[in-house]
Design a protein that fits this description.
alpha/beta; Spore Coat Polysaccharide Biosynthesis Protein SpsA, Chain A; UDP N-Acetylglucosamine Acyltransferase, domain 1; 13-stranded parallel sheet; seven-stranded mixed sheet
């Protein structure tokens, strides 16, 4: 099917993704060192979409997204209140051609291009509804909208289902006649289990259910490749791993720019992409494929795990260690025996014997010997509370999550699963066992005891 217009719904508040949405909308979260929405827009253009309408929220985060997209000539931004996905799409409709189908994407998804291809290649008529579906993360239906299907047919969407195997994935093709159901979507969503408590939002899922109830066939297309709904902080980890594995893990040969350099003393045990002016120095060990972007330097004995991505002008040096499938943002510094696994946003400094696993926000300064624990004494997974919803994620439960523009002092210890808000500081020697709100300074309160001391203590 030829679909040349799209709507991207990016007006949600993103509270469950704290601390990273205190300083940006979810659509601007970095995935493999690229804003999530930039990757999505490129994928839409690749399948023939010529114009995109983006629903943005009022306020600072919405303004940041509108400014980010201001130079995109094929993108129109509309401001809508964050009152649900159906309401967001309704706000986009006046800017879309009402005689042609619409490709609709939630603004916080990271998906393989094959999933969009599969959605578009199914069916022939323009006036249809189709939804992408995929398996529940960790086989856990709570917190998602379940998709009840019969083969390739969608029977019903259920919010907060207690069982099931498939979920709604935030990608749709909607025909022109579907508009009437968008405008009449109930608030709140009524399709929940008995005892369920839906939020007061007008969900696009409710409009899909209304279409089914009025006799329309709705297709369910299984995602053939990875699909990540970035809803919680650990989903940022999952999305980055998926994209880096796709890009770096599939390198079949070296791709080294003529201006890049590789020292003869480097030990590269896989294939490497080196951008312009990238440098790999002496005694470096790369234990698998690696992607080193423009101007980045990997020098002096750095040890790099397989399928790592190192961003523009980053410095990775002095016998530090990056775990496999880690992402280092632009302008980061990882040095002197520091160990890190996960995602560093742009401009992070991790040096001097630090050991961390998780996500470190933009321009965060990690003090010497700051460490995080990844193994609990009970060998279990940390329970996380995301805006009131409690769960033990299968991936990233014991990782740490540090917000943008934060700092730690020397010898800080972070317990498994701890989150540090944006614009926060942790003083030297502090041991964090619980989350810290954004805009907070945490210091150790100690008691000093003084005794007399002098030559008389030494016996002659």
């Amino acid at each position: 099917m030829s679909v040349t217009q799209a709507a991207v719904l990016a007006a949600g508040a993103g509270k469950k993704c704290w601390p990273y949405t205190d300083t940006r909308p979810k659509a601007l979260l970095p995935v493999a060192n690229r804003a999530l929405i930039d990757r999505l827009l490129s994928q839409l253009r690749e399948v023939g979409v010529e114009s995109v309408v983006v629903a943005t929220a009022p306020g600072e985060n919405g303004d940041a997204l509108r400014r980010h997209l201001a130079r995109e000539v094929d993108v129109t931004c509309v401001t809508v209140e964050p009152t649900g996905t159906a309401a967001a799409l309704e706000g986009c409709l006046p800017a879309l051609d009402d005689t042609r189908p619409i490709l609709v994407a939630y603004g916080d998804i990271v998906t393989h291009g094959s999933n969009i291809d599969a959605l578009l290649s199914t069916g022939q008529r323009d006036d249809v509804v189709r939804c992408l579906v995929d398996g529940f993360p960790d086989d856990e239906p709570r917190g998602w909208i379940a998709a009840e299907t019969s083969g390739e047919q969608l029977d019903r969407l259920v919010g907060g289902a207690r069982s099931g195997s498939r979920r709604l994935s935030g990608l749709f093709v909607l025909g022109p006649s579907f508009r009437e159901f968008v405008k009449g979507a109930p608030n709140p969503m009524r399709s929940v289990p008995v005892g369920g408590m839906p939020g007061r939002e007008a969900e696009l899922a409710s409009a899909v259910n209304a279409s089914i109830e009025n006799g329309h066939d709705v297709g369910a297309v299984d995602a053939p490749e990875f699909h990540v709904d970035v809803d919680k902080p650990w989903h940022i980890l999952v999305a980055n791993v998926a994209v880096v594995t796709e890009r770096v893990g599939t390198l079949e040969d070296d791709e080294i720019h003529p201006s890049a350099s590789v020292h003869e003393g480097a030990d590269i045990r896989g294939n490497a992409y080196l951008g312009p002016d990238a440098t790999v120095g002496d005694r470096v060990v790369m234990d698998g494929n690696v992607w080193v972007e423009k101007g980045a330097t990997v020098t002096n004995g750095a040890i790099i795990g397989g399928d790592c991505l190192i961003g523009r002008n980053a410095s990775v040096t002095d016998y530090c260690h990056l775990g496999s499938r880690s992402v280092v943002g632009a302008d980061c510094r990882v040095g002197h025996a520091a160990e890190f696994g996960g995602v560093l946003f742009d401009g992070v400094a991790v040096v001097h014997y630090s050991q961390l696993s998780g996500i470190i926000g933009e321009r965060t300064d990690i003090g010497a010997a700051t460490v995080s624990g990844g193994l609990r004494f009970d060998d279990g997974k940390t329970v996380h509370d995301t805006n009131g919803f409690r769960e033990q994620p299968d991936v990233g439960a014991n990782a740490v999550y540090l917000g943008d523009f934060s700092r730690t002092g020397v010898n800080v210890v972070l317990h498994p699963g701890v989150k540090l808000g944006a614009y926060s500081c942790v003083g030297p020697g502090a041991i964090l066992t619980d989350d810290v709100d954004s805009g907070t300074l945490v210091e150790v309160k100690q008691e000093l005891v003084e005794h007399s001391w002098g030559p008389e203590r030494y016996g002659w």
